[in-house]
């Protein structure tokens, strides 16, 4: 591979090509599954190339900090370009996307029995959209990928979901789509302002960074971006679509939703909203602080009241993503490093919890906590992983979530002690619902006789890989933090 090799384009569109290949194998469900797995593994392997060159300080012709860059004219009349770029932040998110997609394929191996080719084709198509979001440096291109990734999830929930799946799918789509329309208005407004000031009409992110935006207008434009991204987070009180979508989605849908789609909102704030409107972002920081701190405690408190395990984990996501919002609001190198680490760690931990809830549901056709009790003695391997990921979610030192939350709290305390203290109190509530879940499911009194089988080799392999990732990031987060260091330094110089 040479610097001219379009590796970023390949990372974006290989899964889409894979989805077409899956359709070509529609006569054999078994072949479809293996083709989907092969494509997702090749995508993950391709991430080794950007990882190998990530120590380059610059790429020829690229903006500062980007070690891979692709740029070509697309719709020249309107200043729309096909621009992709990768720095340490986008590399980490692309790696997470490729890794979680492999997990999603494997957890769906036996659970999906109807319309198998369509399911895996949508899964791979959604991966293309997510990769495009993390790599786009043209706002028009970013918006296209942002909208495109919603469509496969709409069908995944609506066709293969449970309960009120159509209601949940439509609610998910309307919330996220309507929020996105406001962002589109803001993008067009900024495009026109930049063109009128410079004579150069462009959607380039780094071109628009030079736009002079009065604070009064900037606050409204930033608010439009913030609302769109906050819905995807989701931040309180814009979170109400999330529990329904998680509860009714198939297991792979919940894993992708929690591990990846929520992260696109946080990524959008970091990559686009703050750099484009630094003054407006600073002026509205108190709003983000309040939403983040309240979301941490609210999500944990409501999680404690849930009887459906999937719904409990969904509300825990609201709480954990509050730490991401808190780190972004603080906008310091330490806090922002913690927020990005928390994005990765939450993706691994919560993805694993949703996978295990799906495994239990496949065995008993129930996600209700009251169905279980004392399963430690029946399925010790599954119970071990369940305990491990619950402890990781609670922030146990030595496991992955601890380092992200710790850095967020330390970084936030330096700029806003009150916000850091409020978030710390939310951690206490996290311990409460986690201990309740572990006690009632693993060690509590057996509520009804259950014949449970322990993990299959495939399931054990999935959880073992996730578990090793959680331990590695918990005891040795240095390599990830090193990837994030340079781009964070560049971002936090924006005042």
Shape designation = globular
Secondary structure tally, helices: 21
What is the rounded distance between the termini? 38 Å
β-strand number: 2
Radius of gyration: 22 Å
Structure description:
The protein is mainly alpha-helical and 495 residues long. The protein has a domain at 284-495. The protein has 21 helices and two strands. It has helices at residues 7-24, 29-46, 48-53, 88-107, 116-135, 139-148, 150-160, 165-198, 205-208, 215-232, 241-248, 251-276, 278-283, 285-304, 309-330, 333-364, 380-393, 400-415, 417-443, 457-475, 478-491; strands at residues 68-75, 80-86. A two-stranded antiparallel ribbon has the order 1-2. A hairpin with a 4-residue loop joins β1 and β2. α1 (7-24) runs antiparallel to α2 (29-46), α6 runs antiparallel to α8 (165-198) and α12 runs antiparallel to α16. The radius of gyration is 22 Å and the shape is globular. The mean pLDDT is 90.
Question: Strands, helices and their partners?
Answer:
Elements: H1 7-24, H2 29-46, H3 48-53, E1 68-75, E2 80-86, H4 88-107, H5 116-135, H6 139-148, H7 150-160, H8 165-198, H9 205-208, H10 215-232, H11 241-248, H12 251-276, H13 278-283, H14 285-304, H15 309-330, H16 333-364, H17 380-393, H18 400-415, H19 417-443, H20 457-475, H21 478-491
Antiparallel strand pairs: 1-2
Helix pairs in contact: 1-2, 1-5, 2-4, 2-5, 4-5, 4-12, 4-16, 4-21, 5-6, 5-7, 5-12, 6-8, 7-8, 8-10, 8-11, 10-12, 11-15, 12-15, 12-16, 14-15, 14-19, 15-16, 15-18, 15-19, 16-17, 16-18, 16-20, 16-21, 17-19, 17-20, 18-19, 18-20
């Amino acid at each position: 591979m040479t610097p001219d090799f379009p590796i970023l384009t390949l990372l974006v569109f290989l899964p889409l090509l894979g989805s077409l290949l899956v359709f070509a194998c529609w006569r054999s469900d078994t072949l479809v599954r293996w083709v989907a797995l092969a494509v997702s593994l090749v995508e993950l392997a391709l991430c080794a190339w950007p990882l190998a060159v990530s120590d380059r300080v610059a790429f020829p012709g690229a903006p500062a900090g980007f070690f891979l860059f692709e740029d070509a004219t697309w719709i020249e009349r309107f200043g729309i370009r096909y621009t992709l770029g990768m720095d340490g932040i986008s590399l980490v998110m692309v790696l997470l996307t490729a890794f979680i997609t492999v997990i999603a394929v494997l957890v769906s191996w036996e659970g999906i029995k109807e319309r198998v080719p369509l399911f895996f084709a949508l899964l791979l198509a959604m991966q293309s959209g997510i990769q495009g979001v993390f790599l786009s440096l043209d706002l028009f291109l970013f918006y296209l990928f942002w909208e495109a990734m919603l469509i496969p999830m709409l069908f995944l929930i609506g066709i293969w979901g449970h309960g009120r799946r159509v209601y949940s799918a439509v609610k998910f789509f309307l919330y996220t789509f309507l929020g996105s329309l406001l962002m589109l208005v803001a993008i067009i407004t900024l495009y026109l302002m930049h063109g009128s000031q410079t004579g150069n009409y462009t959607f380039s992110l780094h071109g628009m960074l030079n736009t002079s935006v009065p604070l009064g207008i900037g606050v409204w434009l930033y608010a439009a971006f913030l609302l769109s991204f906050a819905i995807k987070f989701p931040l309180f009180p814009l979170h109400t679509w999330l529990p329904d979508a998680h509860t009714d989605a198939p297991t792979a849908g919940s894993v992708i939703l929690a591990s990846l789609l929520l992260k696109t909102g946080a990524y959008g704030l970091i990559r686009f909203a703050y750099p484009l409107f630094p003054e407006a972002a600073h002026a509205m920081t108190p709003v983000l602080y309040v939403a983040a701190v309240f979301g941490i405690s609210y999500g944990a408190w409501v999680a404690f009241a849930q009887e459906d395990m999937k719904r409990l984990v969904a509300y825990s996501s609201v709480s954990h993503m509050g730490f991401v919002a808190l780190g972004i609001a603080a906008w310091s190198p330490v806090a922002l490093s913690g927020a990005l680490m928390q994005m990765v760690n939450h993706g691994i931990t919560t993805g694993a919890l949703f996978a295990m809830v799906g495994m239990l549901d496949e065995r008993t056709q129930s996600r209700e906590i009251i169905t279980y009790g004392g399963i430690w003695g029946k399925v010790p391997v599954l119970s071990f992983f369940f305990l491990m990921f619950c402890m990781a979610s609670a922030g146990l030192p030595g496991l992955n979530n601890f380092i992200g939350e710790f850095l967020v709290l330390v970084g936030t305390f330096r700029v806003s002690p009150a916000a850091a203290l409020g978030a710390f109190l939310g951690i206490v509530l996290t311990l409460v619902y986690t201990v309740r879940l572990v006690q009632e499911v693993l060690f509590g009194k057996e509520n009804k006789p259950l014949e449970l089988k322990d993990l299959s080799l495939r399931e054990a392999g999935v959880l073992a890989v996730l578990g090793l990732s959680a331990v590695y990031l918990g005891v040795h987060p240095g390599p990830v933090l090193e990837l994030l260091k340079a781009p964070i330094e560049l971002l936090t110089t924006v005042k």
